[in-house]
């Protein structure tokens, strides 16, 4: 099943504003943009913020800023508008309600009143019987009178999609050819949640159709969801777009790229002083090569030579060492003395950084030559620390490592940060571990500043930002021997206890 339309090519990237701007988002955006440009089409950006509990305006702005920094601009989006807006799903509620009613009228969707407890029990029984876990169709048997009574009683419910139980879904993938998935493997997807907001799957299809997306180029993790999307297209009687599922980025050990093993935030690479054109070039090498085999090429050159059919399905490895080599090549070959000086100055003084640093060091300075020893860590990447740097009278290396692991998990949960929030998390950790706060801060000082005594480490994290700070703490954990899987399980349990302790403490404050 494929798109036979002769409409102008339109592709999209649709990030969720629920965290840091991910290099995987930039990777998929790059290939969508190149495909559209190569065919004389348009690339658009849509914000998928149906998860109102996790979506933040800060995350959205970070994503837009990061993609702009990389030069991956878009023809239509939430910032520049367009004829198919709004481009935020949270502003399209009326559109979704109209379309869910169409499905209900056609009998292709139904109300489900099942409680979370019932659904959990059904899944547990299915798993115990080694069956595919999924909705059992219980509410399909409700009569019109049953439904009317439940609605009159204001019982909470969701709206699910009807899915065939026999046969299989057969569709064509641009890179993978024919794919077959048995319908029994496909759950009766929730389309509209009890809060009347659409799920990703429903909003995704409605928006792609109304925004005239002709080619859906996305990560391979969405392959198993494609039958749900195709079924929705068929229920509405719409043309199915062409699907192209890109291979996922991998760590050097071939595991899925994750922030636990590799920095994944675009902001991290910007803060570390990488050139945007080098990072885009490197992402372009992920599963694709220039026809002449050269490794250094511009975005314009990639667009001109682009052919998505040449994408390799082998999991592309995101190797920071290779990125370092390529970035160095760009610095040496593309920047003369004047442009290097200008680019470095812009990076070092970005966001008026010195205005935040000076108040921390001014009272400690007797000569301007004292500034670099005191504040050089603000303009560094990962620091040259060693295990002996964590020697402490009251804390063992093991305790230092555990404290740092708790700190990094705390920081990972912060989508937005303030000095007060970071300080409060440190106080909660100290109280939970029954250790003086200056002792719990000691390993953090070493990890963040490279020294046991320095300027306020809380202020340092606030100025450096969470991306660099988390990377330095993870590096320190590895310097101290790392955390094994067995050890991680124990620490994760303790961290859950810490979260409960912190929640209780906040409630009492």
From TrEMBL:
Recorded E.C. number(s)?
A: 6.1.1.17
Q: What residue stretches are annotated with the Glutamyl/glutaminyl-tRNA synthetase class Ib catalytic domain? A: 9-325
Primary residence: mitochondrion
Which InterPro entries does this one have? aa-tRNA-synth_I_cd-bd, aa-tRNA-synth_I_codon-bd_sub2, aa-tRNA-synth_I_CS, aa_tRNA-synth_I_cd-bd_sf, Glu-tRNA-ligase_bac/mito, Glu/Gln-tRNA-synth, Glu/Gln-tRNA-synth_Ib_cat-dom, GluQ/Sye
Gene3D superfamilies, per database record: 1.10.10.350, HUPs (3.40.50.620)
Q: Which GO terms describe its cellular component?
A: cytosol; mitochondrion
One of the entry's Gene Ontology molecular-function terms is: zinc ion binding
Q: Name one Pfam family in it.
A: Anticodon_2
One biological process term in Gene Ontology: glutamyl-tRNA aminoacylation
Q: Does the keyword ATP-binding apply?
A: yes
Q: Give UniProt keywords alphabetically.
A: Aminoacyl-tRNA synthetase, ATP-binding, Ligase, Nucleotide-binding, Protein biosynthesis
Q: Which CDD domains match?
A: GluRS_core
Q: Where in the cell is it found?
A: Mitochondrion
NCBIfam families reported for this sequence: gltX_bact
UniProt family annotation: Belongs to the class-I aminoacyl-tRNA synthetase family. Glutamate--tRNA ligase type 1 subfamily.
**What is the protein named?**
glutamate--tRNA ligase
Q: Which organism is it from?
A: marine sediment metagenome
């Amino acid at each position: 099943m494929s798109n036979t339309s002769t409409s102008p090519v339109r592709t999209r990237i649709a990030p969720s504003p629920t965290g840091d701007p991910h290099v995987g988002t930039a990777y998929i955006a790059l290939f969508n943009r190149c495909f559209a440009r190569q065919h004389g089409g348009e690339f658009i950006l849509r914000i998928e913020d149906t998860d109102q509990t996790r979506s933040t305006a800060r995350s959205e702005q970070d994503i837009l800023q990061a993609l702009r920094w990389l030069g991956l601009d878009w023809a239509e989006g939430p910032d520049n508008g367009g004829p198919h807006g709004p481009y935020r799903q949270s502003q399209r509620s009326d559109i979704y309600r109209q379309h869910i009613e169409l499905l209900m009228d056609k009998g292709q969707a139904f109300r489900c009143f099942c409680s979370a407890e019932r659904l959990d029990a059904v899944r547990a029984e299915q798993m115990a019987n080694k069956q595919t876990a999924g909705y059992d169709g219980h509410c399909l048997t409700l009569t019109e009178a049953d439904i009317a009574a439940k609605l009159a009683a204001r019982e909470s419910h969701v709206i699910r999609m009807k899915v065939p139980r026999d046969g299989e879904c057969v569709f064509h993938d641009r890179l993978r050819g024919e794919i077959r998935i048995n319908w029994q493997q496909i759950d009766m997807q929730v389309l509209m949640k009890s809060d009347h907001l659409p799920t990703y799957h429903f909003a995704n299809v409605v928006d792609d159709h109304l925004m005239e997306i002709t080619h859906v180029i996305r990560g391979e993790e969405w392959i198993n969801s494609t039958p749900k999307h195709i079924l929705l297209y068929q229920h509405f009687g719409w043309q199915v777009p062409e699907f192209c599922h890109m291979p996922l980025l991998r760590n050097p050990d071939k595991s899925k790229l994750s922030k636990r093993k590799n920095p994944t935030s675009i902001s991290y690479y910007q803060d570390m002083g990488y050139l945007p054109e080098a990072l885009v070039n490197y992402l372009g090498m992920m599963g694709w090569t220039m026809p002449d085999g050269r490794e250094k090429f511009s975005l314009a050159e990639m667009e001109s030579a682009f052919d998505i059919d040449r994408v390799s399905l082998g999991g592309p490895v995101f190797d920071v060492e290779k990125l370092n080599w390529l970035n160095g090549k760009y610095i040496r070959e593309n920047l003369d003395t004047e442009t290097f000086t200008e680019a470095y100055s812009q990076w070092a003084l970005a966001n008026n950084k010195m205005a935040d640093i000076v108040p921390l060091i001014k009272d400690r300075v007797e000569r301007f030559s004292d500034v670099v020893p005191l504040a050089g860590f603000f303009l560094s990447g990962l620091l040259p620390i060693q295990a002996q740097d964590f020697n402490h009278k009251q804390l063992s290396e093991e305790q230092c490592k555990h404290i740092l692991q708790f700190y990094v998990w705390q920081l990972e949960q912060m989508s937005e940060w303030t000095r007060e929030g970071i300080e409060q998390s440190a106080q909660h950790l100290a109280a939970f571990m029954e250790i003086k706060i200056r002792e719990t801060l000691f390993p953090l000082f070493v990890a963040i500043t490279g020294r046991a005594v320095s300027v306020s480490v809380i202020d340092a994290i606030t100025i450096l930002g969470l991306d660099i700070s988390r990377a330095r703490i993870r590096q320190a954990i590895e310097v101290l021997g790392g955390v094994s899987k067995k050890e991680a399980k124990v620490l994760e349990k303790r961290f859950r206890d810490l979260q409960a302790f912190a929640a209780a403490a906040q409630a009492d404050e």
